[in-house]
Amino acid sequence: MARKSGREINGWLILDKPLGPTSTYMVNKLIRLFDAKKAGHGGTLDPLASGVLPIAFGKATATIPYIMDATKRYRFTLTFGESRTTDDCEGEPLAFSDHRPTNDEIRAALPQFCGNVMQVPPVFSALRVGGKRAYDLARAGKPPELPPRPARIDSVTLIERPDPDKAIFEVQSGKGVYMRSLARDIALACGTVGHISVLRRLQCGPFDLSHSQSIDEIVLDKTCETRDKSQTLPVPLLEVATALVDIPALAVTKAEGKALICGQAVNASSWKEASLQDHEANPLWRVTVEGHVIGLCRFKEGQLKAVRMLENHLFFGENDVDYT
Asked: How far apart are CA 103 and CA 101, in angstroms?
């Protein structure tokens, strides 16, 4: 979200999103708290989900796509015996079953959900069908038939069995995997029905709960009377480039960096640490000048070319206020 007014603030804040509000609501709340001109989030969490919600301010919004594509880790509780319209505890009951699978039955069913799989999204999702959101159609009593979509699930692990009605799982997955669908499908594979009753995101790309802060902690700091609200932030932000730490780094000279910032390609012959074939095999490089990340580039046809550049004050003397 961008505003006409507000401060130019750049960096990441990792929110431990509470249960209840939407991700967009939390972004808007933080925009007001920070008096920020521009912000967005790195991956929606449902209102009934909590946990890691990366929020990008200013220049960090340019790196949101790389967080959206990053590996994520979740923990959820699957409640057996009752399926619901939303595949979570917010929906209306659909079907019931008396069967409660054993731990061995659950573990035997899990391998089929790992790897590159096809997954049917929840009917109550933001996917568009004929120009309308699937959840709007479902609420209007016309739930759409959603086709299976490719999904990458790295691992699904049974963590705990608090009682026969519940099982707790930890999942590591790629972009676009619906935990509600996964919980629904695990129950079906075990010969019963079920829905998610608790969902928490533990990690999103390089960000995990150790980086996160609750909204109460942020608001508390905001009201500190000793803080100069005109120049400082309620809490410090992580650097813009923090979102890119999982991408391999490549150091270039200041002259090469300036050329890339200006949209010029740089001859790849100067890089000796690996063969050109190795460089071209990697889709993206995190390019640095004197240890400072300036953007993302890729090798193509023997040249290094810009994909998305983040900084230029090293080369053109910008005097942006740095609130990080």
From this structure: 7
